[in-house]
Amino acid sequence: xxxxxxxxxxxxxxxxxxxxxxxxxxxxxxxxxxxxxxxxxxxxxxxxxxxxxxxxxxxxxxxxxxxxxxxxxxxxxxxxxxxxxxxxxxxxxxxxxxxxxxxxxxxxxxxxxxxxxxxxxxxxxxxxxxxxxxxxxxxxxxxxxxxxxxxxxxxxxxxxxxxxxxxxxxxxxxxxxxxxxxxxxxxxxxxxxxxxxxxxxxxxxxxxxxxxxxxxxxxxxx
Length: 222
Hints:
The protein is an alpha/beta fold. It has helices at 3-18, 23-39, 41-57, 62-68, 72-86, 126-137, 151-167, 183-189, 205-214; strands at 95-100, 106-110, 116-121, 141-145, 175-177, 198-202. It starts with a helix and ends in an 8-residue tail after the last helix.
C-alpha cells in the first residue's frame, strides 16, 4: 500500500467517525481550530517566511509573493473565517424537499456528508483553513493538496488546525495534507477511486483543465 493509499484509508475511517459527530461537536472543533491557529500564529509566520524566501530566490514576481505572504492580520482573518463557517447552519440532515405518496409513504431529499473530499489548489495558504473548515462543517473528511510555493505555510496551518481537532476528540485524519507536491503524486491523487468521493480543483483555468482531463474521481469544477 502506498503512502497516498494509507492517507486515503485513514481519511475514509475518519469520514465514518464523523457520521456520529453532532453539529454541536463540529462547532466546538471549529472554534478549537480557530483558537489553535491564533495560538500558533508565530509558527505559521515562521513557516511562511521560509516560503517567501524560497519564492524570492526562484524569481517569483511581487504580486504572486503578496498572494503567498501571511501576516498577523491575515492569520487573524483566517481564524475569523473559520468562526464564520462555525456560525453557519449545519447542512447535515437538512430536508431539501419532501412529499407524501398516495400510499402514505413519505419521501424526502436530505443533505448528507459526501464522505472524503479531495481539494487541489494553488498558492494562497488561506485556502487551507477555509477548505478544511468547510468540509468539517459539512461532515466530510478532506485531503488537501496545495501548491509547492506554500508548502511550509500549509504544513504549519494544518498542524495547528489538527491540534484543534485533537482537543475536541475529533479524528485528526478528518483533515490531511499531501506534503509531496510532485506531479506524480498529484496524478495518483486524481485517481484515488475507492478513497475519494469527489475532487475539487480551486485555481486557474489550467489547473482545473488538468484535473478534469486526468481525474478518474468525480470532479466538481469551481
